[in-house]
């Protein structure tokens, strides 16, 4: 294994990680952030990079095993680093009841060929709001006009803190579009071809989300947080936006 000292922490790389990519891994925003936070909150004695999944030139998933201690006891050290993400609950108010936009996409890690979920994506070193707008453009379409000041931050949560570093920031936005625009969205094919994304858009009633079955935590949590926010502050004008 190749060993490099980073901020006083010895970092080793498994032979399976190409030596010419070690510097890219060390410079990856999600690796740097995790290392700095872990070193400041734990007695971090060493980090071994066991494997890395690259997406072209971009550093993707990083599997690490750390020698870490807290309060005099060693803690489980395995972690999958993939960085943070954002999602957007788009609420279409032009019809009653309100509707929303879901992506229908194959998700191999959970062996589901047609997972229904909110538009979402990874930060990849970007900022929260700009990433949310970018993902809406990529997964829904550039004809959906959403500005940064229209986004409402619902919360930020860790998705699986026992094994993964990812935290997701959930946003919502109220939109009033006409029936023709809504029909153009329903069934639209989108996705980033470079990342092998195959997405079909689905327009459903907002209150149908809890019963759709094949979905994920961010979709259900965003729905309930949005409904709770509306119950406390009726009307779109009362929803205070939180931007960068």
Automatic annotation (TrEMBL):
Name any one Pfam family assigned in the record.
NUDIX
InterPro entries from the UniProt entry: NUDIX_hydrolase-like_dom_sf, NUDIX_hydrolase_dom
**Reactions this protein catalyses:** GDP-alpha-D-mannose + H2O = alpha-D-mannose 1-phosphate + GMP + 2 H(+)
- Which controlled-vocabulary keywords does the entry list? Hydrolase
Q: Which cofactor does it need?
A: Mg(2+)
Q: Which CDD domains match?
A: NUDIX_ADPRase_Nudt5_UGPPase_Nudt14
Please report the stretch or stretches of sequence annotated as the Nudix hydrolase domain. Answer: 81-228
GO MF annotation terms: ADP-glucose pyrophosphohydrolase activity; ADP-ribose pyrophosphohydrolase activity
**Which Gene Ontology terms describe the biological processes this protein takes part in?**
nucleoside phosphate metabolic process; ribose phosphate metabolic process
Q: Which family does it belong to?
A: Belongs to the Nudix hydrolase family. NudK subfamily.
Q: What is this protein called?
A: GDP-mannose pyrophosphatase
């Amino acid at each position: 294994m190749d060993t490099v000292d980073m901020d006083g922490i010895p970092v080793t790389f498994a032979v399976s990680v190409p030596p010419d990519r070690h510097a890219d891994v060390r410079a990856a925003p999600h690796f740097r952030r995790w290392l700095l936070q872990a070193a400041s909150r734990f007695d971090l004695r060493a980090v071994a990079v066991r494997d890395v999944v690259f997406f072209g030139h971009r550093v993707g998933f990083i599997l690490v095993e750390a020698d870490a201690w807290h309060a005099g006891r060693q803690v489980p050290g395995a972690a999958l680093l993939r960085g943070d993400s954002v999602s957007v609950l788009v609420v279409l108010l032009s019809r009653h009841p309100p509707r929303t936009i879901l992506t229908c996409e194959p998700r191999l890690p959970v062996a589901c060929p047609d997972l229904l979920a909110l538009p979402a994506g990874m930060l990849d070193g970007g900022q929260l709001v700009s990433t949310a707008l970018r993902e809406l453009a990529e997964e829904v379409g550039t004809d959906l006009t959403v500005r940064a000041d229209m986004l409402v931050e619902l919360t930020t949560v860790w998705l699986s803190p026992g094994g993964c570093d990812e935290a997701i920031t959930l946003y919502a936005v109220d939109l009033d579009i006409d029936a023709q625009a809504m029909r153009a969205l329903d069934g639209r094919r989108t996705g980033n071809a470079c990342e092998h994304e195959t997405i079909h858009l689905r327009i459903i009633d907002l209150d149908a989300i809890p019963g759709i079955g094949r979905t994920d935590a961010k979709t259900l949590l965003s729905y309930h947080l949005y409904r709770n926010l509306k119950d406390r502050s009726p009307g779109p004008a009362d929803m205070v936006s939180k931007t960068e």
